[in-house]
Request: fold
Amino acid sequence: MDFQEATTSINKIISEYFKGQKEPAFIPGKTLVQYAQSNYGPEEYQAAVETLLQGWLGLAKSGHQMEKGLAKRFNAAGGLLTNSGSSANLLALSTLKSKRFRRPLKAGDEIITPAVGFPTTVNPIIQNGFVPVFIDVDIGSYNLLTDRLKDCLSPKTKGIMFSHTLGNPADLETLVQFCKEHELVLIEDCCDALGSKYDGKPVGSFGDFATLSMYPSHHITIGEGGFVAARDEENLAILRSFRDWGRACYCVGKATLLKNGSCGTRFSKWLENVDELIDHKYVYSEIGYNLRPIEIQAAMGLVQLMRLDGIISKRRENFQKYYAQFKNHEKFFHLPVWSKRANPSWFSFPLTVKKDAPFNRSDIVEYLESHMIQTRNLFAGNILRHPAYADIERRVVGDLTNSDLILTNTFFIGVHPLITQEMIAYVCSTMDSFLDQYR
Reply:
């Protein structure tokens, strides 16, 4: 049996297997309503098996195709797949200290960042020896307060690193203008925001770099994985070097199989004061990492990418159904808010329990969880309240009142595509049952 015969046979078996799988009936109070759920079909598994049978699991053709597809989504010069969204953030920040970067940053330089978010938006700032400058966020949008940016400025300010929280675009007009005026680097963490738009343009296309996560809870998933995009080719080359062991070689695709690579000068006098010819594949221009995923992940990701628009549409639809319901409960909650210029691709539906509510977050979260409805906090809340960050070098500009409120009062529920109308109705009725006792 040759490769084509084998894949045809296996693909048929996979298709038949999925046809035979019946979606279990939803039983209110018995079936778990998950905050996130991977959305795979037979095509992902078929793509994975074909990759396995080809015998090369290192990043290859599928990886390069997916990189091009995602770069197009961000209107970027190019981008690289990584083994996680956290690694994508690490690469973006590491690139800033390269000697090849247009204005290399040094230890002690400052990066403005919100106090609320996931740790891996902040961690690479610290890990690269930069100093985070924390500012508060807005209740409702959960994005950084751009009216405080001027107060953050110092001679050491070099950039802004932020996330579009839960898929909700930040005030990009102000951020872009501020960075342009003060010659700052802008890095957009889009890990929760694939498909979100601002003024009709995709988030991730406004900054110097954009990052993405493909963890199972996100819009598309390759199990564990991420992506980092660059606005220009020069920064892409630096990113590639940091991702690929620090290697100086920039040949990609089939060109890597050629004796002299795509540059035609693979074997040259690459090293100063060394007269011998050196293979460029073993010349190192950065102190890098190996943060690559594998080809099987990219093969599955290409399938996910093809149905991304439908995933985004369903997330928006589910969000709006929840919003229409929870508008009736504004007495108790701060509802999500977003700019008229934004079209979010929602990661989840956030709610903040008001200070004067007759219950606290623990009360409602425990009630929902006991009724088989998953909830999650808005990540770290005020990250400076956590033990890992107690002694880091940092600056804090203004108070972090909202960040503290989010730490104790904010939670979210899922809007992923596999949530059904039955599930949404059950979540809403369960919430009503809890709130009825306080009317």
Summary: The chain has a mean pLDDT of 95. Residues 245 and 290 are 5 Å apart (CA to CA). The chain has 13 helices and 17 strands. The two ends are 70 Å apart (CA to CA).
